[in-house]
Write a structure and sequence with these properties.
There is one protein chain. The protein has a five-stranded mixed beta barrel with strand order 2-3-4-6-5. The protein is built from three helices and six strands; from the N terminus they run αβααβββββ. By secondary structure, it is α/β, with parallel strands linked by helices. It is 34% helix and 35% strand. The protein has two domains: 30 residues; 97 residues, Nucleic acid-binding proteins (OB fold (Dihydrolipoamide Acetyltransferase, E2P)), CATH 2.40.50. Helix 2 crosses helix 3. It comes from Flavobacterium pectinovorum. Keywords: Membrane, Transmembrane, Transmembrane helix. InterPro entries: Protein_unknown_function_OB. This is tRNA_anti-like.
């Protein structure tokens, strides 16, 4: 009788530890901190958008979900976003400064793909690298 109880307790322990391991290492992962990541390249907004227009699938394979720096002239500013050279839409981490309008800057962020409707490459988690 006691051997059966020990086997059941060991089985419950293995199941609970296995469940914890799966949750901690497979199901739950911390969010990426794009600001602390090193960018894979620096590219102009125009060149990036041209690559996506020529071949969206190839653009996604090269840039999707990657940390990239985009350089260009700020063409639009709202409270939480910027558009660079009318080609790249950037969702900013902090409030965007309207004083940056028409100035050349570098923005680092995560590429989330090409928006066919608005014909812009979209980025999120963006931060200004220099201005």
């Amino acid at each position: 009788m006691t051997k059966t109880i020990i086997k059941v307790l060991v089985l419950l322990l293995v199941i609970s530890l296995g469940s914890y391991y799966i949750y901690k290492n497979i199901l739950y992962k911390d969010a990426r901190d794009i600001n602390s990541e090193k960018s894979i390249l620096t590219i102009s907004a125009t060149d990036l958008e041209n690559e996506y227009v020529l071949d969206p699938a190839k653009g996604d394979s090269k840039y999707l979900n990657k940390t990239i720096e985009v350089e260009g002239i700020v063409s639009e500013v709202t409270d939480s976003s910027m558009v660079i050279d009318h080609k790249v839409f950037c969702k900013m981490n902090k409030k965007a400064e309207k004083t940056l309008m028409n100035k050349k800057i570098n923005i680092k962020g995560r590429c989330i793909g090409f928006d066919d409707l608005f014909e812009v490459v979209k980025f999120d988690q963006c931060s200004i690298q220099q201005h």
